[in-house]
Amino acid sequence: MAIEMRNKRDTQFSMASMSDLVFLLLIFFMLTSTLVAPNAIKLLLPNSNSKTMSKQTITVYINKARDIYVDDRRVEPANLENIIYSQIRNEQSASVVLRSDKTVPVQDVVTVIDAVNEINRKNGTSHKVILATKPRR
Q1: Residues of the chain falling short of pLDDT 70
Q2: Of 89, 94, 98, nearest to 122 (Cα)?
Q3: Each residue of 105-137: pLDDT tens digit?
C-alpha cells in the first residue's frame, strides 16, 4: 500500500511579493530624494575643522558676485535688517546661518553680522549668526 502525501510541493516561485517589494523601495527612494533640497545658490564654502551643528531658522547667502539672498529672495544690504527681522521677530533666540562664498570680502560677512546684532540691540533678543563651512579633506 502506497502512502500518499497530502501536501504537494509546488516547484514554482511566485514573483508577486518580490515585485511589491521592489515598488515599495522605489516609492521610498523617490520620496526621500525629493525631500532633500539642494542649495539653489552656487557657493564655494570656506574649509574648517569645526563641527558646529545648529537648528537653522533662516539662511542668508552671499554669492561670488556679492549678491545677498535671504532664503531664496535677493535683498539689498540696506533692507537686510528689515527682511531678517520680519522672519525671526517671533523668536527670542534664532540661528541665522550665513553661507558665504569663500571669495567674498569680509565686509559683506560683517554686514550680515551687524544686521543681526542691530536686531538684538533694538529688541533685546539673542539671535546668533553661524558661518557655514565645508569639512576639510
Answers
A1: 1-2, 5, 34-48, 50-56, 137
A2: 89
A3: 989 999 999 999 999 999 998 888 888 877 776
Cell of 22: 521592489
Structural domains in the chain, CATH included, are: 47-135 (3.30.420)
Assigned C-alpha cell, 127: 539671535
Its pTM stands at 0.62
Residue type, 63: N
